[in-house]
Amino acid sequence: MGQLMFQKENLAREIRSGLSKPFMQPLALTLICVLFISLILVTGLMDLGRLDRTLVSSMENRGIEIMTFVQKEAQDNYSSFLRLYTMEHEGSLSLPGVEPFLIQETFINNFVAAVRKFEKDPSLENNPAAMEALLSKNGIPFFAIMDGSGRVVFKNRDIPPDVIFRANPVIVGEREILIDLFNPSKKKNQAGFVALRRSNSEGTVIVALEQEGFEYWGKRVAVQTAVNDAAIGDIAFISILSSDGKIFGSAGVSPPLPVSGVLPDWGNSQAKSRKITFRDRDYQEVLVPFYLLENLEGIGQIGLDRDKTDQIITKNRLHVIISMVLIVLTGVISILFIYQNQSRHLARLEELRKRLQQTERLSSLGQLAAGVAHEIRNPLNAISMATQRLQREFSPAEPDRTEKFRKITGVIRDEVRRLNGIIEEFLAFSRTQRFELKDYPIEEVLRKLVSLIEEEANSKGIKMLSNLDGSSAIIPMDVDKLQQALLNILKNAMESISGEGEISIVLEKRTNEITLKISDTGAGLSQDEIEKIFNPEYTTKEKGLGLGLPIAHEIIRGHNGNIKVESRIGAGTTFTITLPSTAPPSGKVFETAK
What we know:
Layout: H1 2-20, H2 26-90, H3 100-120, H4 122-125, H5 128-137, E1 142-146, E2 152-155, H6 161-166, H7 168-171, E3 177-180, E4 192-197, E5 204-209, H8 211-230, E6 235-242, E7 247-251, E8 272-278, E9 281-292, E10 295-305, H9 307-393, H10 399-430, E11 434-436, E12 438-441, H11 442-459, E13 462-467, E14 474-477, H12 479-496, E15 501-509, E16 513-520, H13 527-532, H14 548-558, E17 562-568, E18 572-580, E19 589-591
Parallel strand pairs: 13-15
Antiparallel strand pairs: 1-2, 1-5, 3-4, 4-5, 6-7, 6-10, 8-9, 9-10, 11-19, 12-14, 15-16, 16-18, 17-18
Helix pairs in contact: 1-9, 2-8, 2-9, 3-8, 9-10, 11-12, 12-14
């Protein structure tokens, strides 16, 4: 009963300790795992998005810087043109600090290049509607094509007669080109013009500009000059469009704009951008409002090469993904480890609950059995006394019956003795063990035990071998209890040997403990049997309860010691007993159920 009570208290203590530890249900653990992974994924995606936005913002700022440069230079150019145009109408081209001829040359070169482009395209000549649309888009109000005889074959508007008169030297073939755009001698409000011989056939092209046309082409030349200066480095294309869709300037081949002219929902934004694919290349298209002389004139379209940016994004995205994967793997492995640990913890608690229930049932049965065993002793004593009296007083007179009588009563007496021994063994195990520990030499106990069982061992052909180290080992012990435990182990060793064999006792003294090894050459034990031999519910004996080893185990634990078993089938068994050699405070009582 003491063993069962100790097990019951120990199991209850272990269950309380297990329940007091932090624990999460599997479902909660799974939810935490999912939440953790989702958080990591969301954080990674946010980092990637933040990186994309940072790089896009950087490219937008680059587009704004380019447009600021274009606007400033275009404004300077256009301001110079306006002053030149004003003085041209006032009859003077004297402009302090500015080269008027440089401004004129730039304007004329751009204007003549555009005229040449129109007149060289045969598809436009055969498509009047396309020609008119192109002229309108480029701000050319008067455009006419004449054949070799001076007959007009195409015109978008009637050319002023004075322009035809002044262009006559080109029409009749006397000159190849005649430019009369900046001429202080012409009359006020008189249109300027360019007349040139056609490059791919006979005939003449005449283009005339009035004030509105001059202003548009002044803006266009000013902007185009600025665009040419800005179109370097990572800039793939630039296009500046007026609010009515006319081209102010361009460099490179630009894709169509998503809107016409100024964005209607521009608001307070300095720029808008998007990633586009044009001609199998990726660009960052930046749209910026275009101002000239503080007036919103149109929209600037800037294309920036995304090769380096995409490489940076790809590289950082790879780093972020690898980091996310590593963090997720670390988290998953950690959570799996926690889950596995909790699963073992749960399994252990469940096993402890089952063992506690079993121990409670055994405890109840043990209390009942102890009471029954105690009550059985009195009838057994009466039967034993009655058997002895029968042998003394009621033996038959006939010799043949006397011998049978003695055998029968002897069997009764022996069985009563055996039953009484079983009851004594059971009651000895069921009683709570209490130990009075006193310092005593362990060698004396071992020599006494060897002398007690040596004669019985020799009669069975078993040799007793002992090596007690030759030195005195004083340990705190309850002499009778420890002697009982060691005797049970020695008897178990003798019972495991069938025929001849050996039992050896080896004592080793260490700093704070002694080690005692009891080995036999018996049949040995399997691993399953080793795990059960100290369980009072397990026995391999056909007679008795098999409580010798559980009692020995209980006594050694009561001495703050430890016992281990090593065995193999057919190779014998070794019991290794370790006992402390440092005495506890004097007079202290040790309970088995610690």
